[in-house]
């Protein structure tokens, strides 16, 4: 059985996820853009994996957007996205909060009709391995 480890940015919250992920979606909906402050969310989903909080459980905050299925867990100290369990026991884990390597290839892009207008230009811009230096 696979065990994944994860944490928030400030280190207050840590957790394990025991089991495998069923899918890995990159969601481009407007809600996920607002949540991440980016072009899309990158979330892993599992019907069977088990989440265990190792530390900081009292710092985990859940926000559910009224009149929607959209919810988000985060650390109340640093704001980092964290796992949560949604309808019918579906575990949703933001890929970026894992400290262990994500080996699953993304399954699909979702809600691309809502993609940010600048996203189509991403493949055409310069790439740097770190922060660029001034010339």
From TrEMBL:
UniProt domain CENP-V/GFA: residue ranges: 4-119
Record keywords, A-Z: Lyase, Metal-binding, Zinc
Alphabetical list of InterPro entries matching this protein: CENP-V/GFA, Mss4-like_sf
Residues passing through the membrane, by range: none
Entry's Gene Ontology molecular function annotations: carbon-sulfur lyase activity; metal ion binding
UniProt record similarity statement: Belongs to the Gfa family.
Protein name per its UniProtKB record: Aldehyde-activating protein
């Amino acid at each position: 059985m696979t065990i994944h480890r994860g944490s928030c940015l400030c280190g207050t919250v840590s957790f394990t996820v025991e089991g495998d992920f069923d899918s890995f979606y990159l969601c481009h909906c407007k809600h996920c853009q607002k949540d991440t402050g980016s072009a899309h969310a990158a979330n892993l989903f599992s019907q069977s994996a088990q989440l265990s909080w190792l530390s900081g459980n009292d710092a985990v905050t859940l926000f559910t957007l009224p009149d929607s299925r959209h919810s988000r867990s985060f650390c109340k100290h640093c704001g980092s996205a964290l796992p949560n369990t949604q309808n019918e026991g579906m575990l949703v884990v933001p890929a970026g909060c894992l400290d262990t390597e994500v080996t699953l290839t993304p399954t699909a892009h979702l809600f691309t009709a809502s993609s940010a207008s600048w996203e189509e230009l991403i493949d055409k811009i310069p790439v740097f391995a770190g922060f660029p230096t001034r010339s």
